Amino acid sequence: MADAVRPVPRRSPLAHAADRLAAVSRDTGGALHLAELPFLAQIGVRLDPKGAAADAVGLVLGLQLPVEPHTVVRAGNLTALWLGPDEWLVLGPPGSRQDLESRIREAAGDAFVSVTDVSAQRTTLLVGGPRARDLLAHGCALDLHPRAFSTGRCAQTTLARAQVVLVAPEEPGAGFQVLVRSSFAGYLTDWLLDAATEWRA
Q1: Domains of the chain from N-terminus onward
Q2: 77-113 pLDDT tens trace
Q3: What is the 3-state secondary structure (H, E, C) of the chain?
Q4: Which residue in 62, 64, 100, 117 has the fewest CB atoms around it within 10 Å?
Q5: For the whole model, what pTM was predicted?
Q6: What is the rounded distance in angstroms from the CA atom of residue 133 to the CA atom of residue 165?
């Protein structure tokens, strides 16, 4: 009898960089913290924001899909990001993607909607510390001052010429989430590590 095929362990796009990312906090005296948040569930949703399906999806998720441009709504371990007038990205904890997708589809019923699991498309970098805004400002054209980009805000933008979804800290002192395509994650990590050299002790 042939040996059973062992599943290949899942590996995040930045697993190879974990030690270098972790070292930034030590090397900058705590001015910066970098880490990967791997395997977050990411479900793309498109539907009529004024239709019954939007209310039903909001009810089943326990949060209302944000309708104000570039805003974020959080509830429990779920986050909904506004990406366009009829487009959102719903983020959940690792391992929740199938459940999230099925719950959204079921809630939408027969309405005209698009529900797409894009979890494998991007990984997430956490950029925190007192100098996080300064670091990101090196490669991002957005005004990242707290008065312009504070808690509850998100944006599709470029960082070091890589397309990203940037999410403001959940609360003062927390880190920015940078959602980047997996194929660009290594490049963006190298750029962040190089840019962080300015604050190395």
Answers
A1: 16-37+121-199 (3.30.1360.120), 41-117 (3.30.70.1520)
A2: 999 999 999 999 999 999 999 999 999 999 999 999 9
A3: CCCCCCCCCCCCCCHHHHHHHHHHHHHCCCCCEEEEECCCEEEEEECCCCCHHHHHHHHHHCCCCCCCCCEEEEECCEEEEEEECCEEEEEECCCCHHHHHHHHHHHHCCCCCEEEECCCCEEEEEEECCCHHHHHHCCCCCCCCCCCCCCCEEEEEEECCEEEEEECCCCCCCCEEEEEEHHHHHHHHHHHHHHHHHHCC
A4: 62
A5: 0.93
A6: 15
